[in-house]
Amino acid sequence: MTFLALTMIVSACGSSSNTGNNNSKENAATSEPAASPSTETKAPQVTMTVQFPKSDNLTGIEFVNKRLARFQEKYPNVTLKKNDWQYSPNEIGIKMAAHQAPSFFRTPATEGKVLLEHQWLTDLTPFLANYEHANDFNDKLADPFKIDGKMYAIPASGYIMAVMINKKLFEDKKVPLPTPDWTWDDFYAAAKATADPAKGIAGFAMMAKGNEGGWNWTNFLYGAGGTTQNVADSKVTSAFNSDAGVKAMEFMKKLRWEGNALPQNWALNFGDVYNLFKQGRAAMVLGDRIEDAINNGGMKKEDLIILPLPSMVKGGDHTGVLGGNYDVINPQETPETQQMAFNYVTFDLFKDSGLDELKLVLEDRKAKGQVYLYGAPAYYKADSEYGKKIEALVNQYPDNVFRYDPEVTNLMKGVPEPSYNGQECYAALTNVLQEVFSNKDADVKSLLDAAAKKFDSEVLSKVVVK
């Protein structure tokens, strides 16, 4: 759990910018090899390029440097080179063609199909065969990079979208709380009943200003059984204008115009939505930002619950967008370097040191009167030996932990984000969403068809699938 928190600190350094100096292996900074390698081992000398934080991420640099030192101590035969290139869909092809990509790199969940189709992923089967925790990874997060029974990536930080609920607003309007097995009909009824436009309270607040709007809406597309894109005959085409897409967009239209359940000013971005929630002006939002709501927003733990996305029909899947970051190994490296890269990306997983770090976090939250969110899908299985150790530790801090209901976690099903030009796809969908929210007579099917045609022509037609 703590490893996830720390790896997100490191990965954040690369999300802000992909520009900078020449990051080729020849120009990368090199760490000093151990002065006197152990005479007890005759392991061959290996050179490995490590993905390193950008220069402005001091916290990330300190964390990785400490990790490198520990790794070097265990593997003195490895020469480590630092490379601060962070994954970019527009740059990965250039890096691979020039053989300048790091020995391993962190990539978003959206990139799995692209990387595999270009043969830029290493099959981890040989390494997992000798790895004691090979069967302890959480399948919900590992599945996006499991193809034909083979695993191609190690989950670093992942999420499956959920719904965060302000119980107090339900109680104020005497609206029964929904249950984990709820449906779209239940969601609509709850959103309509808890909305109080005269007081500026929305039953449901969703993002609809930037690309986040398409991201939020895609959860309902998946819930209707749809997908954003199809791949056939080496071509990628939009699929969000399917019958499932129409159902999902019509549901948004119903919430807006029939239920009057959305904020009167619905053009909200990521921060706007969560600020509205923290102010007690939205009964339901997508996400599980419990820590922010309580620790920074002053909300009470007992006033909040998390549920899975509702199923479209009773008994259906509770499907949400699955996203996050994954560590993959460069297939251009030698088998010896690939093994060391695997050893590095799994170096801090399933270790007691992670428990020690988590204890520090929990002690800090206890001292500050803050909460720690526990129970969301993590890289490990909850019923693994390590998962049980995490749970035992968390149980020692009952007042400072907000728990996912295990039933909620079991119901959650994740579907990866769009594989090709994901952010541009979300932007195209946001345009449709905004038109639907602006015009109660909007023709949903026509809007989706037009968006798909435009997106295919301007963006997806240029994608080459090998």
From TrEMBL:
Q: Which InterPro entries match?
A: Bact_solute-bd_prot1, SBP
Please note every region of biased composition (Low complexity): 15-41
Please indicate which superkingdom the organism of origin belongs to.
Answer: Bacteria
The protein's name in its UniProt record: ABC transporter substrate-binding protein
SUPFAM superfamilies with a match to the protein in the record: Periplasmic binding protein-like II
Where are the residues of the annotated region Disordered? 15-44
UniProt cross-references to Pfam families, sorted A to Z: SBP_bac_1
The record's PANTHER family line, in alphabetical order, gives:
ARABINOSE-BINDING PROTEIN-RELATED, SUGAR-BINDING LIPOPROTEIN
